[in-house]
């Protein structure tokens, strides 16, 4: 299910219409829109809580963005911009689909999102508390975002429980699945921090000296992914198998359209759709 709703959410970071909506309220540059849009449900926060809940950004990078972005756009303005841009992007990408298709998908996704468990999940909780939206595309995007952040909160908890820090987590991703090192460096970590994280993963037995992922590392990180899946399962259990299957069917063309329109090399990685 994550592979089907994550591309719907991701238009807010990567689609030109979403970028234009952020720029229209004064948030020029990719990272200003990213930090303001994603943090806005928290209110006009300082850097510290965002460093904690976003997890994988170097603290100095977050501190450069926050609280400075709130002088450019208030949290309510950022929230309006992110929803406006996301809806405009989805309207462009789904114009060939019948309204009944989008309405049914939105209804089922909202039902799933309404079942998220807020305790211990900060970003999931603050997004779940936002208005659902008046129209199907707004409902669809907001529900996808709530589910995405709910899953992300659980993933961060699993990483912390496994004893992984942010730069180690990114270094592992680069080593294990071939993600460009720019994915790591784009989050503000230095070359020295990269190498130090690599050495820690070598000592842990997850990487060989030349940076190759070991079977031990893959097995132990799979435990993190399994814990993430378990923590994210409740909305789908609440929705039920039949409706979850129907929702996956409805989301398939929407997710593929979003996936095709977003750049393959981007600061956030999109999961591959089945097939």
Q: How many strand segments?
A: 0
Class by alpha and beta content: mainly alpha
- Termini separation (Å)? 14 Å
Main sheet properties: none
Rg, alpha carbons: 19 Å
Number of helices: 15
InterPro entries: HTH_67
Protein name: SalK
Organism: Micromonospora arborensis
Characterization of the model:
The protein contains 15 helices and no strands. α6 packs across α9. It starts with a helix and ends in a 14-residue tail after the last helix. With 275 residues, the chain is an all-alpha fold. The relative contact order is 0.16. The chain has one domain (2-160, 226-261).
Question: Short summary of the structure?
Answer:
With about 280 residues, the chain is an all-alpha fold.
Write a concise keyword list for the protein shown above.
mainly alpha, about 280 residues
Helix and strand arrangement:
Elements: H1 2-14, H2 16-24, H3 30-39, H4 47-54, H5 59-65, H6 75-93, H7 99-113, H8 122-128, H9 136-161, H10 166-177, H11 182-185, H12 191-204, H13 215-231, H14 234-239, H15 241-261
Pfam family, one: HTH_67
InterPro entries: HTH_67
Organism: Micromonospora arborensis
């Amino acid at each position: 299910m994550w592979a089907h709703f994550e591309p719907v959410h991701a238009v807010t970071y990567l689609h030109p219409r979403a970028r234009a909506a952020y720029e229209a309220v004064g948030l020029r540059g990719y990272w200003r829109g990213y930090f303001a849009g994603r943090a806005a449900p928290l209110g006009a926060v300082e850097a510290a809580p965002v460093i904690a809940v976003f997890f994988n950004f170097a603290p100095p990078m977050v501190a450069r963005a926050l609280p400075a972005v709130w002088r450019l756009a208030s949290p309510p303005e950022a929230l309006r911009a992110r929803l406006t841009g996301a809806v405009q992007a989805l309207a462009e990408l789904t114009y060939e689909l019948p309204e009944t298709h989008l309405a049914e998908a939105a209804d089922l996704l909202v039902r799933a999102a309404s079942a998220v468990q807020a305790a211990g999940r900060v970003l999931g909780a603050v997004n779940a508390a936002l208005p659902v939206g008046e129209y199907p595309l707004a409902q669809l995007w907001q529900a996808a975002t709530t589910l995405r952040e709910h899953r992300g909160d659980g993933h961060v908890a699993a990483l912390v429980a496994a004893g992984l820090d942010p730069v180690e987590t990114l270094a592992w991703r680069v080593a294990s699945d071939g993600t460009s090192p720019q994915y790591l460096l784009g989050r503000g970590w230095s070359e020295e921090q990269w190498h130090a994280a690599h050495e820690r993963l070598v000592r842990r037995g997850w990487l060989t000296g030349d940076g190759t992922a070991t079977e031990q590392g893959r097995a132990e990180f799979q435990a993190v992914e399994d814990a993430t899946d378990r923590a994210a399962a409740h909305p789908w259990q609440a929705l039920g198998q039949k409706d979850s299957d129907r929702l996956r069917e409805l989301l398939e063309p929407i997710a593929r359209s979003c996936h095709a329109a977003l750049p393959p090399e981007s600061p956030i990685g999109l999961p591959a759709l089945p097939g």
